[in-house]
Amino acid sequence: MLRIGGLEIENPLLLAPMEDVTSLPFRLIAKRIGRPGLMFTEFVSAMAARFNRLAALRKMRVSDQERPLGIQIFGGDPESMAEAACLAEEAGADLVDINMGCWVPKVCRTGAGASLLKDPDMAVQIVRGVVRAVRVPVTVKVRAGWDYDLFAAPELARRFVAEGAAMITLHARFARQGFDGTADWTLIEAMRKAVSVPLVGNGDVRTADDASRMMRETGCDGVMVGRVAISNPWALAEIRAGVMGEATPRPPSLDERVSTALEHLRLAIDHEREGWEPRGEHTNPELQACRSLRGQLPLYVKGAPGAAALRARLSSSSSYSEAEELLLGFLQDSASQTCAISA
Ligand SMILES: Cc1cc2nc3c(=O)[nH]c(=O)nc-3n(C[C@H](O)[C@H](O)[C@H](O)COP(=O)(O)O)c2cc1C
């Protein structure tokens, strides 16, 4: 059990915040399959929260089925971040997470994300402003530092904790690295010595063995998993079982993968229908959901024979029934091929 401020987390597996991925439909799938102890929304811009409230609220939608949930926000000044944190709390966040890890220029140019690692005083003011603005726990997700030779995170994290941060997540790469190279878990071990609040390790965990090794070698209290869950939410179940000392769940059948892809699409259509923008493309929620899952749906059957051809056809589908026909047809073809081989 992990305790973050007043919040109790049932297991130490955390689903990472991922832009355009960890929207409500994906989180509901991830929760059903992998039961992570805590999940996060994709990051929500504090400026959007101020100037495009509807879009921000859409990203902040929370379902009771997925709790506990952290809403992640990013921004470059304490005032807008405090406002965004209040909006997140009103929207139902169980905790508010501050992004100080995003390295992409469009975010860093605004003084937000990982660029705050270069401006410690502003970073601390933002944490202070957000902690004062909300009652729920406030957590911070950082990278090791901006430049390779400057491991700024431990000193920063100490200051964040002094301001009331209830948990620190370290993606064990420097901002300049983007996603290059491998995550250096010794940085997590070094961070462990800096903070007494829960520390979550992140970077390159793909299997249950990776997760157990990260916890053992670094002393971190939780493991955050990102990319592997995008193409394979069942990896979450395997990792969770591993860190909880439970039996490894069996891998999903092709049947299960196809039905989960369809479940995801149905959830995405509902999400579009319940959106707050009943105009433009949102007047056709099925089309919008098919478009938003163009990259993701084919991943459910990745590696199966014929998956590449299916991917191309799925990418141009524009309704649930069209996608369903393609996926069920694919399943039927696979079953008849298997019968032919085993006959
Ligand atoms: C598509 C994508 C979107 C991401 N969006 C966010 C984000 O919104 N907020 C954030 O803190 N990190 C974001 N990240 C970084 C992940 O949370 C995580 O730190 C990183 O992927 C390393 O973990 P992994 O090796 O398990 O993937 C994103 C990563 C990916 C691949």
From TrEMBL:
InterPro entries, from UniProt? Answer: Aldolase_TIM (IPR013785), DUS-like_FMN-bd (IPR035587), DUS_fam (IPR001269), DusB-like (IPR004652), tRNA-dHydroUridine_Synthase_C (IPR024036)
Q: What is its EC number?
A: 1.3.1.-
Q: Which domain of life is it from?
A: Bacteria
* Catalytic activity line of the entry: a 5,6-dihydrouridine in tRNA + NAD(+) = a uridine in tRNA + NADH + H(+); a 5,6-dihydrouridine in tRNA + NADP(+) = a uridine in tRNA + NADPH + H(+)
Binding residues for FMN: 72, 141, 171, 226-227
Q: Where is the DUS-like FMN-binding domain?
A: 14-274
UniProt xrefs under CDD domains: DUS_like_FMN
Q: Name one GO molecular function term.
A: tRNA binding
Pfam families for this protein? Dus
Required cofactor names? FMN
What keywords were assigned to this record?
Answer: Flavoprotein, FMN, NADP, Nucleotide-binding, Oxidoreductase, RNA-binding, tRNA processing, tRNA-binding
List of catalytic residues? 102
Query: Family assignment?
Result: Belongs to the dus family.
Q: Tell me, in a sentence or two, what this protein's role is.
A: Catalyzes the synthesis of 5,6-dihydrouridine (D), a modified base found in the D-loop of most tRNAs, via the reduction of the C5-C6 double bond in target uridines.
Q: Kindly provide the name given to this protein in its UniProt entry.
A: tRNA-dihydrouridine synthase
